C-alpha cells in the first residue's frame, strides 16, 4: 500500500492510524510528525517562500487566483515515480491545498490509477468522520474508531467542564491580520465548546474579512491570533499592524492583557487529530480560572499591553 498525502491534516491522520510506513509522498506543508520531513514533496507553492507580510500574501493570493486559478503546483513526474495507490486530498479550500479537479485529472492519467480519498470537513464532527473515512479506505475501521473514541473523550471533558460556566466572554478568533479575517468552519464551534462566544465567525461557514470598525464596535474581551499557515513568530512580526490601528489600545482584550498568539499552522487550521489540541488551547485561554494548568504547554504567547 502506497499513500500520498496532499494535506498536513491527512498526514497526521495517517500517523494516528499507524500507517507512516506506507506514506511515500507529502505536500510542501506537511511537517508533523517530524519523521515525515524526509519524504518527497509533491506540491509546491512559491507564494510563501519569500517571507512576505500578511498584507502582501493576501494581495498575491488574490492576484494569483485571478490570473492562474490556483496557488499550487503538482510535481507530475514525481507522482508517477511514487506510484501511489491512494492520494489523500480535499475540495474544501483552494487556498489551503491543490484543487481537487487538478488532482483528479492527474490521478486519472497515472499508471496506478490511485484511489482519491477526499476530506472536506466543515465542523468538528466532520473531522472525526474524515478519520473514519481514511480508516475505511485503508481497511482500518477498528483502529480509526478507537482513535476517535480517545479524541472525542477529550472533547467531552472540555465540553462538560465549560458547561459549568455562567458567562461566556466575547472572543475574536482571528485567522488573518492584514486584512483582518474571522475564523471559519470549525473555529467558532471550538470557541463555543471552550466556553466563549465567537463574535464574528459562523460555524460551518468560510472565514470572511471583518472591517476594523466592526471589531472596535464589538469590543472583544479575548483576542486569539491564530493566523492560517503562520507559526507564532511569523504572527508576532505582523502584530505592530494591529497595534497601530485606531482603537486597538482601548479594546477590553488589550487592556486586560487577553491577547494571545497561537500556532495556527500546527493547530487551529489543521482539521486532523490535533484539532482537539486546538480546543484545549482555547479552553485554557478563554477560561484560565477553570482550565489553567490542565493541558500541556503548546507555545501560546500572551501579549503585554502596548504602550
Give me a quick take on this structure:
39% of the residues lie in helices and 12% in strands.
Characterization of this structure:
This protein is globular. The strands form 3 sheets. Strands 7, 8, 9, 10, 11 and 12 form a 6-stranded mixed beta sheet that branches. It has 2 domains: 3-120, Rossmann fold, CATH 3.40.50; 167-302, Nitrogenase molybdenum iron protein domain (Rossmann fold). Strand 5 (86-89), helix 4 and strand 6 form a beta-alpha-beta unit. It has helices at residues 8-16, 54-68, 76-82, 100-107, 124-137, 141-162, 187-193, 212-218, 232-243, 252-255, 275-286, 288-291; strands at residues 3-5, 23-25, 43-44, 73-74, 86-89, 115-118, 170-176, 181-182, 197-198, 222-225, 259-261, 301-302. The longest helix is centred in the middle third of the chain and has 22 residues, at 141-162. It is built from 12 helices and 12 strands. 43% of the residues are buried.
Task: Summarize the SSE layout with pairings.
Layout: E1 3-5, H1 8-16, E2 23-25, E3 43-44, H2 54-68, E4 73-74, H3 76-82, E5 86-89, H4 100-107, E6 115-118, H5 124-137, H6 141-162, E7 170-176, E8 181-182, H7 187-193, E9 197-198, H8 212-218, E10 222-225, H9 232-243, H10 252-255, E11 259-261, H11 275-286, H12 288-291, E12 301-302
Parallel strand pairs: 1-2, 1-5, 5-6, 7-9, 7-10, 10-11
Antiparallel strand pairs: 3-4, 7-8, 11-12
Helix pairs in contact: 5-6, 6-11
Amino acid at each position: 500500500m502506497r499513500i500520498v498525502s496532499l494535506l498536513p491534516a491527512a498526514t497526521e491522520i495517517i500517523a494516528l492510524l499507524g500507517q507512516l510506513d506506507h506514506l511515500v509522498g507529502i505536500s510542501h506543508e506537511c511537517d508533523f510528525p517530524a519523521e515525515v520531513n524526509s519524504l518527497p514533496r509533491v506540491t509546491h507553492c512559491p507564494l510563501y517562500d519569500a517571507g512576505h507580510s500578511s498584507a502582501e500574501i493576501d494581495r498575491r493570493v488574490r492576484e494569483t487566483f485571478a490570473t492562474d486559478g490556483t496557488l499550487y503546483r503538482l510535481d507530475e513526474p514525481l507522482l508517477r515515480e511514487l506510484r501511489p495507490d491512494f492520494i489523500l486530498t480535499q475540495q474544501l479550500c483552494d487556498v489551503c491545498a491543490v484543487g481537487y479537479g487538478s488532482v483528479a485529472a492527474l490521478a486519472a492519467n497515472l499508471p496506478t490509477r490511485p484511489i482519491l480519498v477526499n476530506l472536506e470537513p466543515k465542523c468538528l464532527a466532520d473531522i472525526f468522520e474524515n478519520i473514519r473515512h481514511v480508516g475505511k479506505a485503508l481497511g482500518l475501521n477498528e483502529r480509526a474508531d478507537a482513535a476517535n473514541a480517545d479524541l472525542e473523550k477529550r472533547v467531552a471533558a472540555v465540553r462538560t467542564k465549560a458547561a459549568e460556566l455562567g458567562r461566556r466572554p466575547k472572543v475574536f478568533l482571528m485567522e488573518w491580520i492584514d486584512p483582518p479575517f474571522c475564523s471559519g468552519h470549525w473555529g467558532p464551534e471550538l470557541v463555543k465548546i471552550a466556553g466563549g462566544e465567537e463574535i464574528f465567525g459562523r460555524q460551518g461557514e468560510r472565514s470572511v474579512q471583518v472591517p476594523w470598525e466592526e471589531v472596535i464596535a464589538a469590543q472583544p474581551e479575548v483576542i486569539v491570533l491564530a493566523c492560517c499557515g503562520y507559526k507564532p513568530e511569523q504572527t508576532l512580526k505582523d502584530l505592530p499592524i494591529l497595534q497601530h490601528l485606531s482603537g486597538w489600545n482601548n479594546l477590553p482584550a488589550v487592556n486586560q492583557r487577553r491577547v494571545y498568539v497561537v500556532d495556527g499552522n500546527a493547530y487551529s487550521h489543521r482539521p486532523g487529530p490535533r484539532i482537539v489540541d486546538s480546543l484545549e488551547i482555547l479552553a485554557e485561554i478563554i477560561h484560565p480560572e477553570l482550565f489553567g494548568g490542565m493541558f500541556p504547554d503548546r507555545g501560546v504567547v500572551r501579549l503585554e499591553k502596548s504602550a
